[in-house]
Amino acid sequence: MKSKLLYPFVAVLAAVAFTSCDKNDEQPDQPKAESSYARLLITDKTSNTVTLLNPSKNEQTSFQASHGGGAVYATSTGRWAAVVSSTNSMVEFFDTGIEAHDDHVHVKGTPKWGLTKSTGPTPSHVHASHNKVSIFNDGNASINYIEEGQLHTVPAPNTIATGTAHHGAMILFDNGNYAVTHKNNTVAGSLPEQVKIVNTQGSVVAAPSVATQGIHGDAGDGQQAVFGSSSGLLVVKQTGEQRLIPYPANAGSNWLSTIYYAPKARTFLGSRAGYGVFRIDLTANTITQVGTATDFVRVALDQEGEHLLLLDGAGTLTVYDAATGVQKASRSLNGLLDTKAATPYLAASRGYVYVTNAPQGKVHMLDKSTLADQETFVVPGEPLRLAFVGADASTEDGD
After folding, report:
1. 158, 182, 237, 337: least CB-packed within 10 angstroms?
2. What count of other Cβ atoms lies within 10 Å of the Cβ of residue 179?
């Protein structure tokens, strides 16, 4: 599971072509370039190496994590990334030194690891919002949380005990409380059946009021959270109200087990391999498929939460408008990399899509509007997961 809230940054990604009345004096368009403060943090499949890539300058720096093959998630400011090794019960925090502020950035030192390490048993879910990083630990159903501003000064995060161990998740609301999954053992297996709301002291603010046959996947917008469930989509408001949105009549036994929130599009989405990707309308209580693909291997949102990226089982990458479901671009990647040999991971900025190619030790940069090749970066080892960090901006504030 995973979920993440991202805040939009305003940046200029393309140069403007200036023309005069004399067509012979027209100047050609300047080539597009990635924002100066955009970065990618990339983990390696076989080693502890973590690579920080600056696409605009084609520069990279290597760092060593405590463990290899980790998942990586950007924080809400973009300055930090959480590097997660579930099998080793470890979450470390990497500081890019770039803090986003709308259309500009503040540079806060050089890239380096933070002091904080989270060591809860089997961390499975990272949620970044409200300048805070929250982690759900499957091994004891605890929530570890810490403010971004403390990651260089506090050795370990705060901990909330929430109940019986299970494969769960949580969402942080605007009021500071958490919607967290709850295991009551009415259904066999590791999946929880309900959701409750707790405060940072672990006290239950709102008890579960809806039961399901199993929950997996969640996302939130600060006011409400959506959890994937085999019984329907469970919607939980920060005020405590809960309800189920039923799946379409033709869903059969299918259900949405991964949930996303696209901030710029202000849209919830859900997916399940073999079923499809769907837009979720919380006002109309409807679920509408995006595209027609049911056989897909990777789904991701761009950094702003405006576009949805979908890589299907045939190797075709498609970009959709997350708010409307309208297709924006599509391309087969089979001539670029072997998606069968290793499933790529995806990340995207406002202007570009990045695709890992582990067998060849590369990260491919594609123009997001056309998916045409833009650049290829050779990365040491076998690049596995990646996250867009830093800022989609090219101006630094002097403060």
Report:
1. 158
2. 28
- Chain-centroid distance of CA 205 in Å reads 28
Closest among 51, 71, 46 to 61, alpha carbons compared: 51
Strand partners, 229: 215
Across 178-262, the runs of DSSP E, i.e. the strands, are 178-182, 194-198, 204-206, 215-220, 224-229, 233-237, 242-245, 258-262
Nearest to 11 by CA among 102, 128, 118: 102
- Could you tell me if 330 and 319 are in contact, meaning their C-beta atoms sit under 8 angstroms apart? yes
In whole angstroms, what is the distance from residue 111 CA to residue 41 CA?
Answer: 11
Domain ranges of the chain: 32-390
Please check whether residue 240 is in contact with residue 197, taking contact to mean a CB–CB distance below 8 angstroms: yes
> How many Å apart are CA 122 and CA 4, to the nearest integer?
19
Query: Can you give the pTM of this predicted structure?
Result: 0.91
Fold category of 32-390 in CATH: Methylamine Dehydrogenase; Chain H (2.130.10)
As given in the structure block, the two tokens for residue 204 are: 């239950």
**DSSP type of residue 148:** G
**Per-residue pLDDT reduced to its tens digit, 178-200:** 999 999 999 999 999 999 999 99
Contact 268, 282 (CB under 8 A): yes
> Distance of CA 5 to CAs 266, 352, 390, Å?
11, 19, 15
Judge contact between 344 and 398, C-beta under 8 A: no
Total residues found in the chain within this entry: 399
Task: Please give the full DSSP string across 19-49, using - where no structure is assigned.
Answer: --SSGGGPPPPPPP---TTEEEEEEESSSSE
Dihedral sign of CA atoms 284, 238, 321, 288 in order: negative
Of the candidates 360, 361, 355, 268, the one whose C-alpha atom is nearest the C-alpha of residue 319 is: 355
